[in-house]
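thought: fold this chain, then report.
action: predict
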Amino acid sequence: MSFTLAIVGRPNVGKSTLFNRLVGKRLALVDDQPGVTRDLREGAARLADLRFTVIDTAGLEDVTDDSLQGRMRRLTERAVDMADICLFMVDARVGITPTDLVFADILRKRAANVILAANKAEGKAGEAGVIEAYSLGLGEPVALSAEHGEGLNDLYTMLVPLADGFAERADTDTPETDVTLSEEEAEAAGEESIPMPTSAKPLQVAVVGRPNAGKSTLINQILGEDRLLTGPEAGITRDAISLRTDWNGVPMRIFDTAGMRKKAKVQEKLEKLSVSDGLRAVKFAEVVIVLLDAEIPFEQQDLRIADLAEREGRAVIVAVNKWDIEEDRQAKLKDLKESFERLLPQLRGAPLITVSAKTGRGLDRLHDAIMRAYETWNRRVSTAQLNRWLSGMMEAHPPPAPQGKRIKLRYMTQAKTRPPGFVVMCSHPDKVPDSYNRYLVNNLRVDFDMPGTPIRLWMRGQNDANPYKGRKKAGPSKLRKHTEGRRKD
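observation:
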């Protein structure tokens, strides 16, 4: 990416719509309600032959206090400082407002490169607004329609000369990456069978939980900067934000998700979009951190979220936040472990980590738990080991014989990883009870050191070697005809 472009402007001028068009996906939530975007969202943008990073920002409000809008404004101003180019967007149909004048003055002082865009300029209704935009003193405005994709050629024309300058700078500042390994070093690098995260393909981690559990605060602590909007209000985060970082030398992409409330309480269209965005983040993740509030852990919604992550086949870590304000920690930890084993038996052995997102305590333990969970999620067991193990399991506890039909477990193999999935070839697979499946899965966890990770086990039937199996027996009349025919011959 040669440069970074931040889209800024008042609420509801179409910043997220343009962001989605530039990245070619519906990454940012879009709604008629103003103020939908609250956090900074980054994406890989493409405009003709230009490749760059685009940042969607919260709508600028004319407030400077510690209110939610004030914190959103400070986060947007930080994006302006980070970006190489600022695209200042106004609404051509509304015209220039006093707030636009205030922020145009701020951008003149803070941003080195500003492009003015008058959005919603399609048709005659926007013509007057485009002409009025000249009064901001930021040069010639680009007439855009982010919703319909109009005016992008003019935007490209404005970006090209700036992009050329940033491309030259990137060529000068790029570090040397062409490294040649010796044969011994290459062999040593290839010994690791588990695919470890790389900068090209980072480890995908989603942080999920109820509103106000401290998800954004935790991610800010991991990043070492106030990258996400936080505060005492519940439900600040609205859409799933993905952030790239290098945590203790491990490349990661961390997803911050909106708090998930009970389905009956999710009434507004916007909140439904937020929750569905969070569920999509869980499906893309490899490791899911279920963040609980130490004051009210393991509520019904927490259990549903953890069960969802397990059903999606993700490696799950349960982290208990706000541990810094807990007084009797030993007793509380004992209660947490008992509740965990009782309420989430499907995640038996999954890590239970206590953290403080506010102070940063427990983050090293959380990082170690993520790496262990990822390694287990990728675990592969040889077929020979599995069949020796299966023989021992059948000797210790033979499968039942429902309706007098004896079930034979012939052999076992691992069909997949991420999460580990195993197939047992057997007779009468439909007769194997769920209790016996659980017996095998629970012992797989213990004997092959796979605590907490979801394990899939499938029973499959095996065709008998008898070629005449399934054919109808010949009746007496057919046998008689066959015999008579042979006699005549």
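thought: worth noting. Residues 29-36, 172-192, 262-274, 464-468 have pLDDT under 50 and may be disordered.
final: tokens above.
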